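Supplementary Text 2. Reproducibility record for the structural model of the 299-residue chain.

All settings were left at their defaults, and a single model was retained for analysis rather than an ensemble. We include the record here because the model underlies the residue-level annotations in Supplementary Table 4.
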Amino acid sequence: MEKETEYERQEKLTQEESKKFSDKYMLPLAIVVAGVMIAGAMIYNTGSRSLQVTKNSNAQNAQATLTDGGNILPLEAEKKMLATLIANGSIDSSKLSEVTELNLLWAYGLANKNQVLESGPIMDARYGGPTNMASVGGWTVTTGSVMDHYNKHALAILTPDQQALVEKIAKGIYRPCCNNSTYFPDCNHGMAMLGLLEFLASQGSSEDQIWNVALVANTTWFPNQYQTIWQYLKLKNLDLESVSPQELLGMEYSGAKGYAKIAAQVPTPSKSQGGGGCGVDTGTLVPAPAPKQQSGCGV
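Retained model, structure tokens:
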């Protein structure tokens, strides 16, 4: 019998750690989030307003297919979100025939009217304005101009406490593609995460639930980087029980610089970036390049 190579050993280690993560977070979260949706009948905390699906002919005839839906949020919730975004023009189905879960949440975060987009760092004149960001200038599949939809649609209506929670969590979530937090959503992953946080908060999810779902999202979008992180934890004799989602999503683990330090200590880090890049990528659309980006996460 051939001796197991170091690479094979590390691959087996990665699979084991990924399974531990899946067992700890994925199934319980699917139940928790689905429970929130079903038990609350998708009711906002501010009243009995439910997530509306526009019943006009345009929306009816413009249904796109979610190519990887249901990984983070229940599929039915994502279908309703998609119909709403098509109806308000944030997604033009004639330009985007297949919508990934990442792209769906990207459009939701970009279109939803929220203080983070209205007065957060993405609006700082030092950075050239929102259209200078990959998350805005790179979203090329709207009807009309992207700025016709940026921060324009009331999709997730938050109470003051929910808004404060979104901002608190957003400031603590980083992504391996750049060094900015979700509070500065300058690439598609940041904007998608912002949309996810807003949606979950609007449904009454607790802070712990939101942190956990956010970790599921990041590991879905950056699977190879988090496999490397699992390897790093193992090398340090740490397990998932000893590291909270807040720590894993923070700058030390999930920021580009923090992740680079971790990857340098792992014998066989995954070389693939994952996450589908920082632009619209459906296999059928070649979007125009965004203007100069601050994070390097461009199309």
